Amino acid sequence: MFEVELKFPVESHEMIRQRLKSLELKSLEVVSESTSQHCDEYFNHSLLDFAAQDIAFRIRSRSDQHILTYKGPNLDQRAKVREEIELEFEGAEKDKFRRMLFGMGFHSVAAVNKKRDSIKVAVEGQTIEVCLDNVEGVGTFVELEQVVAEKSEVEAAKENLESLAVRLGITSQPTTISYLEMLLGSG
């Protein structure tokens, strides 16, 4: 599975919300909306340098739900295109999993905390997630994400995201720098 993402710094989410409402009647359908607090704890290994390899390994926590995620290196220059593998687990399992990681030589690098409003929309038969993120210590962003099964679908997904960005009136340039890199000042 590949996650295709365009991330834009913005002053506010209000314009995006307004544009989504006006487009909803014409050319897209809002499929679902949710708000959640995310704590993304990133890990590295004592014998590896994940930053140099451009990979990420994290545990995302939302309430009592946790997702272990591996993100492969970025495969593109204008968008963030990465293989993504996820494993979900519940509650107390997080502490056990962290102890296992520490026992195998992993260490915690940093935690990225954000409030995310997620709006899934259907555009011409494709599902795109519009994420309105407020990231502690980093800023305010809009992420447009589409997940595709095959590498051959990546170009079409990028075109879908770029088209939606234009329709939403996003004028800032996208960035491929991760929130972790921004938080650590290495991006």
Topology of helices and strands:
Blueprint: E1 2-9, H1 14-24, E2 29-45, H2 50-53, E3 56-62, E4 65-71, E5 80-90, H3 93-103, E6 106-123, E7 126-135, E8 139-148, H4 154-167, H5 179-184
Summarize this structure as a short list of keywords or feature phrases.
single chain; 187 residues; alpha+beta; Hypothetical Protein Pfu-838710-001; eight-stranded antiparallel β-barrel; 8 strands; globular
Q: What does this protein structure show overall?
A:
This protein is of the alpha+beta class and 187 residues long. It has a single domain (2-184), classed as Hypothetical Protein Pfu-838710-001, CATH 2.40.320.10. It has helices spanning 14-24, 50-53, 93-103, 154-167, 179-184; strands at residues 2-9, 29-45, 56-62, 65-71, 80-90, 106-123, 126-135, 139-148. An eight-stranded antiparallel beta barrel has the order 1-5-4-3-2-6-7-8. The longest helix has 14 residues, at 154-167. The protein is globular, with a radius of gyration of 17 Å. The model has no long low-confidence stretch (mean pLDDT 94).
| Percentage of residues assigned to helices | 10-25%
Shape: globular
Count of structural domains: 1
- The CATH class label is Mainly Beta
Biggest sheet, strands in spatial order?
1-5-4-3-2-6-7-8
As residue ranges, the low-confidence spans are none
Alpha-carbon distance between the two ends: 25 Å
In short:
With 187 residues, this protein is α+β, with helices and mostly antiparallel strands. Helix content is 25%, strand content 47%.
